[in-house]
Amino acid sequence: MIEVLRSSWKLGDLRRKITFTLLMLVVFRIGVHVPVPGINKQVIADLIAQGQLLGFFDVISGGAFKNFSIFAMSITPYINSSIIMQLLTVVVPALERLAKEGPEGRKKITEYTRYGTVILGFIQAIGISFGLRNAIINPGIGSTLLIALSLTAGTAFLMWLGELITEKGIGNGISLIIFAGIVSRVPAGVVSIYEYLKVGTTNIFAVILFAVLAVVVIAGVVAIQEGQRRISVQYAKRVVGRRVYGGQSTHIPLKVNQAGVIPVIFAMSILMFPGTLASWFPNNTFAIWITRIFDFRTVWYQLLYALLIIFFTYFYTAITFNPNDIAENMKKYGGFIPGLRPGRPTAEYIEKVANRITLAGAIFLAGIAILPSIIIATTNLPVYFGGTALLIVVGVALDTMKQIESHLLMRHYQGFLK
């Protein structure tokens, strides 16, 4: 590993990309400590200690929400806008045509995503300002508007920073910003565990159990994220003029977890929404009842959470993976799966295989998502480093490593993967 990193640093262009990426992440970490004016941060800290959703926002934003800095919303509006645009691309014919127009079409969709980010960011900022009105030092329309504009500007800056990293750095900029925010909370978590050990709230055996579980889970996440089911494909020989094309064997790689982390985000958003609204009306009887019903510590909540993740995994895979298109493209270029006729039988077979491996991926996602609750119950440690954060960290690390790997292999250096 050390030799690989040394080889990476020897390449001038790769060294510049890595240095630029690190500098941009430093800018992000500086911005986390730039506060939004007119907010009592102690009230925010108390609310985070009470609610899982706000705690999750704080983890994703790298502590920016607790400080209530200009980056308090992190890049969440951009993620939401991207997901909405991805879904609309499947549903709206005009956007589907744009997606098939190549780089120019994707450039236009990216532009729409940016506009959507600003709009969603402003709406979310208004909602946060209204929901946290008790934390505003001088409540009023002017203060609320100032806070909303500050938060929206912070999100827009992060979006620009992420795209700059993607263009001039290494890895996906947006993902790396989320990655940096999550990883920055790890030292604070280690200190908290040490404090719990010191005061006797937990014991060394619970900490060791937690460490073993963490290693096993990370290994499982890597295995599932990289896992594939390869369907063999044979291409018939074709004679065009004096040249012979085809005749080779290849495969269709079907990922075990094709939906990524999106089903977890969807399920969490749906389940957290009623509780978040109820927290804005603490003295209302109906709101108190909603808060009690949607308490993440209950068994039925965790069961509903897991079922929603499984549902959204199938839903998202169904709208992004089309076996009929794959079968038609194979038939067009003379490809076939041995033992199956081209066309509809091939599409049905691919769909059947995809459904089977999607079930494994969905159960895995559900297990990772409810893992923090199991760890809390087992080790008595206050672990709020959720499954979503873990999936993001591992996925971004693997993606960035692969990009560095490709740069090294182009210049005949040995990479991370052997």
UniProtKB/TrEMBL annotation:
Q: Gene Ontology cellular component?
A: plasma membrane
Q: Which Pfam families match?
A: SecY
Keywords from UniProt, A to Z, are: Cell membrane, Membrane, Protein transport, Translocation, Transmembrane, Transmembrane helix, Transport
Its domain of life reads Bacteria
The portions of this protein that span the membrane are: 20-39, 75-95, 115-135, 141-161, 173-197, 203-224, 259-280, 300-321, 357-377, 383-401
Q: Name one GO biological process term.
A: protein targeting
The membrane topology noted for this protein in its Swiss-Prot or TrEMBL record is: Multi-pass membrane protein
Subcellular compartments: Cell membrane; Membrane
Protein family (similarity comment): Belongs to the SecY/SEC61-alpha family.
What is the protein's known function?
A: The central subunit of the protein translocation channel SecYEG. Consists of two halves formed by TMs 1-5 and 6-10. These two domains form a lateral gate at the front which open onto the bilayer between TMs 2 and 7, and are clamped together by SecE at the back. The channel is closed by both a pore ring composed of hydrophobic SecY resides and a short helix (helix 2A) on the extracellular side of the membrane which forms a plug. The plug probably moves laterally to allow the channel to open. The ring and the pore may move independently.
Q: How does it assemble?
A: Component of the Sec protein translocase complex. Heterotrimer consisting of SecY, SecE and SecG subunits. The heterotrimers can form oligomers, although 1 heterotrimer is thought to be able to translocate proteins. Interacts with the ribosome. Interacts with SecDF, and other proteins may be involved. Interacts with SecA.
Q: Report what the protein is called.
A: Protein translocase subunit SecY
Give the lineage. Answer: Bacteria, Bacillati, Bacillota, Clostridia, Eubacteriales
Q: Which gene encodes it?
A: secY
